[in-house]
Amino acid sequence: MTTMQHATAPVGTEPVLEARQLRKSYWLGGREIPVLRGIDLRVHRGEMVALLGASGAGKSTLLHVLGLLDKPTSGEVRYDDKPVQDLSVAARAKLRHQHVGFVFQFYHLIPELTALQNVLLGRMMDVSPLGYLGIRAKVREEAMALMAQVGLGERLHHRPAELSGGERQRVAIARALLAQPRVILADEPTGNLDSSTADEVMNLLFRINSERGLAFVLVTHNEELAARCHRVIRLKDGVVVH
């Protein structure tokens, strides 16, 4: 894997994202199954944080709770030092669309849409149809610029089935960036790619982190990849271990 040098992540500033004593349990047959057992976490602007741990450690659950896709059983999720876990469904969705970008292992692209349409979809869902009409040209221009930035300027009108795995993930990255989020949550973003393509995608993510000052929380099993990040947080059985 190609090594890269990164600037030291900012310190001493208010965190973009914070978890305080975060707990999450599920219930199965009347029995409580604890997954997160009191997680404390701070992520600052421009910081690339790796979440490392074995399968079942709670990494993906933590990412879903941090990204407001799921509610914690107890504890706080804070964005810009404001607790957000108890917001209404509509308010949580709005915050998620405006402040959080997601990059998943399996892309989650709509097969019937072109690459460009997939990138635009998130912004279309974030506003009313009438509101989108007023910004459509500007958003399309921004989306095309992002597609060029991720190396897909010539693939705008290809559908997912016509793209390689690495190209699909680049579409997903451009989609995550379009809303200009404060933090990107990436769940095994290279887990479905061969090693050469995985390197290319990760180099792109590190470049975006450096150029845009975006915070990243990256779930991975890969020790070598985690070592390239500013900071590594290890999870085991739902707790942070050192």
Detailed description of the structure:
It is a single chain. The protein has 242 residues and is of the alpha/beta class. The protein has one domain (17-109, 165-241): Rossmann fold, CATH 3.40.50. It is built from seven helices and ten strands. Strands 6-7-8-3-9-10 form a six-stranded mixed beta sheet. A four-stranded antiparallel beta sheet has the order 2-1-4-5, with helices on one face. The protein starts with 16 loop residues before the first strand and ends with a strand.
Task: Provide the fold topology.
Blueprint: E1 17-28, E2 31-43, E3 48-52, H1 59-66, E4 74-79, E5 82-83, H2 89-99, E6 100-104, H3 115-126, H4 129-149, H5 165-178, E7 183-187, H6 195-212, E8 215-220, H7 223-227, E9 231-236, E10 239-241
Parallel strand pairs: 3-8, 3-9, 6-7, 7-8
Antiparallel strand pairs: 1-2, 1-4, 4-5, 9-10
Helix pairs in contact: 3-4, 3-5, 4-5, 5-6
